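Sample 3 of the quickstart, ligand TUI:
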Amino acid sequence: MIKSRICEILGIKYPIFQGGMAWVADAELAAAVSNAGGLGLISAINAGTEAVRNEIRKCKTLTDKPFGVNIMLQAPNAPEIAGMIVEEGVKIVTTGAGSPAKYLPMWKENGIKVIPVIACVAHAVKMQAAGVDAIVAEGAESGGHVGELHTMPLIPQIVDAVDIPVIAAGGICDGRGAAAAFMLGAEGVQVGTRFLSATECNVHAEYKEKLLKATDISTIVTGKSLGHPVRSLKTPFSRNFAKMENDPNVTPEEILAFGGGALRKAVQEGDVDGSYMAGECAGMVKNIEPAAAIIEDIILGAEKVMKERIASMCQ
Ligand code: TUI
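Result:
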């Protein structure tokens, strides 16, 4: 059985987190993952703070297992969400795209486990010093907002720099990826893109269809010129976005206006002008299946590949 410190800290069976995907990660998906022994996460990027509160309340009716909330710190309502999760008795929070330092005293006083997502060593060291419980180290293979380093060099450098558990994210989709992350020193993995295909994931059917059709070269990073690099599926919309970025006659304001609300449009409407965020492993997602089957495949696959590789290669 695969276990690590993070299972003890959070009270979960398997060291697998579901990515807190903006607009995607709702109560139904989070509860399905938590019920299957992983850590389900609800995204706080949704239709406002009260909508997130409702998802938290709904999740409690769907599971008695631990689950968490992911807060994108650049969101305008992040301070409001930070207080609301305390009111709702949430026990685990992950944060993205910034430092959660100013909320730490309030969250720690309320017994909340805090796990920031970071993308470089300096931030990992800073977060450990601030007193967080673990970190998610996210490589640029992931979908959505990405850093610069990729998972393979990122994880060992972070593991060497901190003592708290490191959860690897970015490009991990099956047991092989999870086993590789464990070999690099990670004590858990966070999986986003594969859970987009879960039966319990409520994205528009068009999103799932695009994902299932994806190949190895189906994603593109746009938004670098705006300081917000985002990985998504190649579509006429994302290619146009990339073209506009490279056109000196188009202003950043025009690009922002073009891309505004694009993720929500993809998730809820399957719109052609949507941003279908997905990681580089999109090409490895081939079926729609329940979250529990995904978790079992990753855990059993990791165990199998670790044993087989040791038996065949370590003489
Ligand atoms: O946050 C993410 N991924 C996301 S957020 C998102 S929502 C969105 N919607 C529309 C357009 C753009 C984004 C979609 N995907 N990942 C976590 C992550 N955090 N990756 C990198 C970081 C990060 C970056 C800077 C963490 C900390 C940091 O700075 C720390 C500091 O000290 O300020």
